[in-house]
Amino acid sequence: MLRLNRLSLTDFRTYASLTWRPAARISVLYGPNGSGKTNLLEAISLLVPGRGLRGARLADLPRQGGFDTWAVAGRFQTSEGKADIGTGSAPDGPADRRVFRLDGQAPRSQADIARLVAAVWLTPQMDRLFQEGLSGRRRFLDRLVWALEPGHAREMAAHDTAVGSRNRLLADGRQDRAWLAGLEDAIARHAVAASAARLALVSRLNQQIEAGLAGSFPPARIGLACPIAGRLATEPALAVEDWLRAGLEAGRKRDAAAGGAALGAHRTDLLMTDVTTGTPAALASTGQQKALLIGLILAHAALIAAARGFAPLLLLDEPAVHLDPQRRDSLWQVLAGLPAQIVLTGTDREIFLPLVAHAEAFETGGGSLRPDTSFLRPDAVGSPVSCVP
């Protein structure tokens, strides 16, 4: 099992210096808002490629009153042995540049890190996923794809770069047909590749959900609102690329007036429906949406475990919010039986008491962690927490 054995923070968010050695498979962090719970989850999420669970600007990560630099390091037990992974400000570079280290050396690419570790997370911001614009749902979808297909990030980056270049050309009124045709060819190729990866993930997720999850989480049906994915379901990829190129060429005048491309992978939306009631997630209650999302996250974690041979770290920020007591108890039962390392947060210590036999717990605040001896004894493996004010 993938395990985080040690987490070290230096001038990160509210933590001047902290070393935490998780001792149990499940760790509970509780305390009032602003006490540093989510900061610890964010630190762990930054040890895998990507912008972390908050998607924060690098300028927001250093501790206020510190030195405008920050560092996070983790020691992991992976399927390939022990690995030390670190990230933070570049030692001799600009503050807005972030670097990675793998066993003390710069990795050849972030794919070297993605091969060893993976993490999935649930945050309170995701509770509004189906009430906001499609861009947030698309980012959420692409993060799910990336966890299984690291190359998807490159496809989307290349696609978005080509779309931006085409938008600027059209906005400037420059009708360089050869240049526009080249950009539209790149958009078509990368959009079809990205859409195919999204379509494959949705299919695999639906199969995983249909296989069933323990507890009372409603089964969801995932779908894509995407003409590219719709065509890929019935047509060869090369034919879809030709269709997309032709559509982009025909839509140049329209796109110039609108200020953006009407066709492309950036227009995809994620759909989710409660299979039991037939209710689309956008019309479901807040609690129903939360239950659907938890089921989706757990299915995604199971999919990663099946595909990669190890379960990802599960980072669940305020997972009990909006859940009724029955679904909350169901969540604790599911988590207690999962073969994964899990970190949970919440403001109310009492809701975690059903996990006393399965989890260690810490109260957060003041840039430190205070062990709660009512839960599993964290001192069973030495000194799990040390901090320097």
From TrEMBL:
The keyword NAD does not apply. The keyword Phosphoprotein does not apply. GO terms for cellular component: cytoplasm. It comes from the Bacteria. It is found in: Cytoplasm. GO terms for biological process: DNA replication; DNA synthesis involved in DNA repair; double-strand break repair; SOS response. Keywords: ATP-binding, Cytoplasm, DNA damage, DNA repair, DNA replication, DNA-binding, Nucleotide-binding, SOS response. Pfam families: SMC_N. Residues 23-366 form the AAA+ ATPase domain. ATP binds at residues 31-38. GO terms for molecular function: ATP binding; single-stranded DNA binding. Its main location: cytoplasm. Coiled coil: none annotated. The RecF protein is involved in DNA metabolism; it is required for DNA replication and normal SOS inducibility. RecF binds preferentially to single-stranded, linear DNA. It also seems to bind ATP. Belongs to the RecF family. This is DNA replication and repair protein RecF. It comes from Rhodopila globiformis (Rhodopseudomonas globiformis). The lineage of its organism: Bacteria, Pseudomonadati, Pseudomonadota, Alphaproteobacteria, Acetobacterales. The gene is recF.
